[in-house]
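Homework help board

Subject: predicted structure for assignment chain

Our instructor gave us this sequence and asked us to write out the predicted structure in token form, then describe one feature. I got the tokens but I'm not sure how to describe them. Can anyone check?
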Amino acid sequence: MNPAIKNLAIKNGLFLGVAILIGSIAFILVNPRGFLIYGNWTLFLIALLIMIKTANDVKSQQDGYASFGQLFMPILLTVAIGYFFRIAIYYIMANFISPELIDIQKEISFETLESMSGMLGEEVMDKSFEAIEDQNVASIGSVLLQYVSLMIGTGGIVNAIISAILKNQKPLIDRI
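My token output:
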């Protein structure tokens, strides 16, 4: 990745991170329960727009052309930086500023599990309730696991789809 494109990806990653930071804090302050239920989708849409912006910026740096790999790596860097902000703000909010987020998240997990009670047996339900109760969803390990899953889902799969759709090669005559 050339330095200009790397700088572009870092700039877009910081932009994504700040957008996620502001969106998360505003969402948590207005409606913590709504943040835990709908916040992920809202933040994903912001990330998706910035991922597409990064792809278009890379293409404009290269006369309108970019291969899959030339798009994938800058978008991955953008997502990695932006989602680092996302997990950092969640960790800080849940552990230091607004610890009730942990209780709300457990409550939502219990409600979701109860809605599935018909499909799961009594023993599985009891074990699941115990696991939820014992788990600290805002521990450093849990938050890092969330980061890894976000990087696989958004940074990998969604990025691959965007890169595959937006890639284009120079015409053959220009490549000779």
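Reply (TA_rk): Your tokens look well-formed. For the description, you could write something like this. The CA atoms of residues 19 and 46 lie 8 Å apart. That's the kind of observation they're looking for.
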